[in-house]
Amino acid sequence: MIKDCLLDYNLSQLADRLAQYQLKSYQISQIYQWLIKGVDFLQMTNLPKALREQLANDYDSASVRVIKTLTSTDSTTKYLMQLRDDNVIECVVMKYKYGNTLCISTQVGCRMGCAFCASTLGGLVRNLSAGEMLGQVVVANKLHHSAQSRGITNIVLMGSGEPLDNYDNVLSFLTLVNAQEGLNISMRNISLSTCGLVPQINKLAECRLGVNLTISLHSAFDDSRRKIMPIANKYSISQIINSAKYYFECTGRRVIFEYTLIEGVNDRREDALQLARLLSGMSAHVNLIRLNQVKERHLTATTTDKAKEFLALLEQLHLSATLRRSMGGDIAGACGQLRYSYINTNADRNTDNNGDSDNNNS
Ligand code: SAH
Hints:
Blueprint: E1 4-5, H1 11-17, H2 25-36, H3 49-58, E2 59-60, E3 64-71, E4 77-83, E5 88-96, E6 99-103, E7 107-109, E8 124-127, H4 130-144, E9 152-157, H5 167-178, E10 190-194, H6 198-207, E11 212-216, H7 222-228, H8 237-251, E12 255-261, H9 269-279, E13 284-290, H10 304-316, E14 321-323, H11 337-354
Helix pairs in contact: 4-5, 6-8, 9-10
This protein binds S-adenosyl-L-homocysteine.
The site of S-adenosyl-L-homocysteine has 18 residues, from strand 10 and strand 12.
């Protein structure tokens, strides 16, 4: 049976959880501090040994563990992490001058079905709990923390999964990671990326958390967007733009639009013109990125030269835009690629071992 994991709780919930041990409140705080530093119960050296053993017996202190690490030539590090039910997820640390950004997963798999994305290839397996999202931060923070480095300074919810399809747990995670007595990562340093679930964007706006919002737009025309993003059949671009404006109104945060450049799909001159028309007068920014080609998806990246032309055209049209470097291309950098190759290799192994074709690639 899987034990209760204490990373799911904030400080006051932790006190309730551990009420049966009749601890002093400073001991609850000590446990909490160890938990967010990623320390095992038995190593919680300022607690009595018997208590440490009791806690280790009754609870889990960690929600994820690293089973594979890949470091790219551009010093992006990708971690494959195992959850306590043996599912695997991935997260990535990108090093920038200002600090380390961690990209976390919010679901095991994804059900959004975007045509260019590896995360959705096996569908949705399950939502992650708040503690499983926090666990990725705790582990990465521990690995990257040193005398010279502050560990993780920024977080993007841009790994596998659709965060707004796991709304309640994502909101609890944001509160946990932002808690002053916890990791205390400012909402200004956190970005949530969505494929455009309009009602949830509006709900998030009304929470006024001030987390940065990124919307994966990928086309300024509804018909081409429908070809690459099934969610476009449910919400139109004009509904998305209204929600983005509402988000800005409620939070004062400029909305960022992700735009993955795909050869012949969304990289024509008229695509840039329409994008500029759509966003004109808005407090918005466009992040262009060339498609990270996924073997199972038959789409081609726009050439670097063409991507630069697309950017220049947007700038001419007075749109704030950048062409992002695609990081970690040599280590299955795109969303869900590493997990997908891992579960497939394991499924092959299972099939080899027991001749059973009913693999775990669900
Ligand atoms: N579901 C959320 C967050 C996960 S995807 C969303 O859709 O925003 C994070 C970002 O990576 C999205 O902008 C997504 O469109 C983009 N992405 C996914 N696969 C990609 C690929 N192969 N190449 C480039 N960008 C990709």
